[in-house]
Design goal:
By secondary structure, this protein is an alpha+beta fold. Helices cover 24% and strands 24% of the residues. It is built from eight helices and 19 strands. The strands form five sheets. Strands 9, 12, 15, 16, 17, 18 and 19 form a seven-stranded mixed sheet that branches. A four-stranded antiparallel sheet has the order 1-8-6-3, with no helix packed on it. Helix 5 crosses helix 6 and helix 5 crosses helix 7. It is globular, with a radius of gyration of 25 Å.
Length: 417
């Protein structure tokens, strides 16, 4: 039984084999995931078209495979086979749902004492913001968890396993001089490879410049707090993002040049009259930018629910190619992590990307009843990077002036709908 890479979508002729989900000797069932293939659009799970046993893997992780290329061979009769030496497993372990493979009994190892947990500072542990948040929610000290990711990165599965009692603790280092460790070499592939290619393309093609403006978001914070309370009753988590997106649409209607893409083939600027906003989402594998479509037609709670579902699917690797198509502008949010502001890289061939940063309370001078007074306000910065080939500095300043007006007076957003 031979399995060849099936059609991946219109215009997609190849993809990178990111990960095998099976190994030689595994018994698989019909429709069970065999591997993960990453295209320019998305990472796709490829299901098995047969039930049987894997006898040979003919492609390697990290390899670019073509549509209809031979991927693996299998025995559809279903008899268990011992893996060949020359066909060593390409992954470290079989997926949890794979059927067991017949193996000789392993020798029983003598019991050893459990290692003592270390006192590693959680701030020094490699982990994504979502993993840190999960550890905090579960009351787990990151410094005590042994990471199974690259360079010892702690993954969400490590946290879940630790909480369930099946995870490992970080082993404390012995005192005294330690041997110098060799350099770690990690192949640039999968999500990181696609991010690298996309960022390089953007820097090579677009002439980047960034414009930064500050905003008094006190009224927005109050509105979002009320919306959050109502959303909780609906089972919807309401963040600031739906409000920012609606303010973007309102401002883009007055400054349409920023809602454009560059068509290099025809040497044209293509201005869009719909508003599909890509949202940068941090996952265990890196940054991905799925698209929230037709933002102009959706209300706050509808957007909040869609964002919530999109982020969840991104982190579970359930996005499809359609989730990445037809974006017109991108919104990136680093506010939950910190930092004053950033200079984001354009999601080429778009001409603009807006950065939403942290909100903090600060004293500011306000004119109240004709007198200057120091008051405490909610404050933030927005940064927008643009393609200077298409958008001039004055255009950026005018757009941000309009956008900030909507952010500082959020009721105006809904008055114009």
């Amino acid at each position: 039984m031979e399995f060849r890479l099936p059609e991946l979508g219109e215009g997609v002729n190849e993809g990178e084999l990111v990960k095998w989900r099976v190994k030689v000797g595994d018994a698989v069932k019909d429709d069970q995931p065999l591997c993960e293939i990453m295209t320019d659009k998305a990472t796709i799970e490829i299901p098995s078209p047969f039930s049987g046993v894997i006898t040979e893997l003919t492609a390697k992780e990290g390899e670019i495979v073509k549509v209809h290329q031979l991927m693996l061979k299998g025995d559809s009769k279903g008899g268990a086979v011992a893996p060949k030496v020359e066909s060593a497993p390409l992954t470290n372990s079989a997926p949890a749902h794979a059927a067991p493979v017949a193996k000789a009994p392993a020798p029983v190892a003598a019991p050893v004492a459990a290692p003592a947990p270390s006192k590693t500072n959680p701030a020094d542990v490699l982990a994504s913001p979502s993993t840190r948040r999960l550890a905090s929610e579960k009351g787990i000290d990151l410094g005590a968890v042994a990471g199974t990711g690259p360079n010892g990165r702690v993954l969400r599965d490590d946290i879940e396993g630790f909480k369930a009692g099946s995870g490992s603790v970080r082993v404390a280092r012995a005192k005294g001089p330690q041997p110098v460790a060799a350099d770690d070499r990690i192949p640039i592939r999968g999500m990181r490879k696609k991010i690298s290619e996309k960022m390089r393309q953007s820097k090579d093609k677009a002439a980047h410049f960034t414009y930064v403006e500050e905003a008094d978001v006190t009224s927005l914070v109050k509105l979002r707090t009320r919306a959050k309370t109502i959303g909780e009753k609906k089972g919807i988590k309401v963040s600031f993002l739906p409000f920012v997106m609606k303010a973007m649409v309102a401002a883009l209607r007055k400054h349409p040049r920023l809602n454009s893409v560059v068509d290099e083939a025809t040497n044209e600027i293509v201005t869009k009259h719909y508003y599909n906003i890509s949202l940068s989402v941090q996952t265990e594998d890196g940054l991905t930018v799925p698209v929230i479509k037709n933002v102009q037609d959706k209300g706050i709670y509808e957007l909040a629910k869609e964002i919530q579902e999109m982020v969840d699917r991104a982190r579970k690797k359930k996005l499809t190619m359609e989730d990445f198509q037809d974006s017109t502008i991108t919104l990136t949010n680093a506010g939950s992590i910190g930092g004053l502001f950033a200079t984001p890289i354009i999601n080429y061939p778009e001409v603009a990307i807006l950065g939403f940063n942290k909100i903090a309370r600060k004293p500011v001078v306000k004119v109240i009843n004709g007198a200057e007074k120091i008051v405490i306000r909610d404050w933030t910065y927005f940064s927008i990077s643009l393609d200077h080939r298409i958008v001039d500095g004055a255009d950026a300043a005018e757009f941000m002036k309009t956008f900030i007006d909507y952010i500082e007076n959020p009721a105006l957003i809904f008055m114009e709908e």
